[in-house]
């Protein structure tokens, strides 16, 4: 039996407007595929850095309070979790944006909620509910001014 180290992927980054401050969110993934050319990518964790463009520095951010960040195939979204029952504070909701690489093999299975306090990922869908060949969900932007 041959053990193969999973291929670490980097460079998946999002710029997020967080209450007027700029965050750089890094998505750390590994390739569980059979080779570096055969992708079955799974997210393992996130790192968030608050950018200070004037000083050309960044600071690691481990807690963003009652807010949640949504990442998908369009613009990132930040919401106050207190305004949306069931939305988890200090978390990142993410979808699988690589479904187009090998949908026949893996479908859309890299979807979840990253909890910063526990440094853990929970599945977004309960086991057995989500079909692996379905398209990834989209995040609908609420009009928080009307709440």
From TrEMBL:
Protein name per its UniProtKB record: KIB1-4 beta-propeller domain-containing protein
KIB1-4 beta-propeller domain residues: 13-115
PANTHER family: OS07G0183000 PROTEIN-RELATED
Native species: Rhynchospora breviuscula
Superkingdom: Eukaryota
């Amino acid at each position: 039996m041959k053990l193969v180290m999973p291929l670490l992927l980097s460079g998946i980054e999002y710029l997020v407007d967080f209450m007027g401050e700029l965050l750089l969110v890094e998505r750390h993934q590994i390739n569980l595929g059979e080779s570096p050319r055969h992708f079955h990518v799974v997210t393992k964790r996130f790192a968030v850095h608050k950018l200070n463009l004037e000083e050309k520095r960044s600071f690691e951010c481990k807690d963003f309070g009652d807010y949640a960040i949504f990442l998908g195939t369009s613009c990132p979204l930040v919401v106050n979790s207190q305004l949306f029952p069931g939305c988890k504070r200090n978390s990142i909701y993410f979808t699988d944006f690589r479904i187009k690489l090998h949908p026949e093999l893996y479908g859309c299975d890299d979807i979840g909620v990253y909890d910063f306090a526990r440094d853990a990922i929970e599945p977004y869908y309960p086991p057995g509910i989500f079909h692996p060949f379905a398209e990834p969900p989209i995040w609908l932007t609420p009009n928080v001014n009307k709440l």
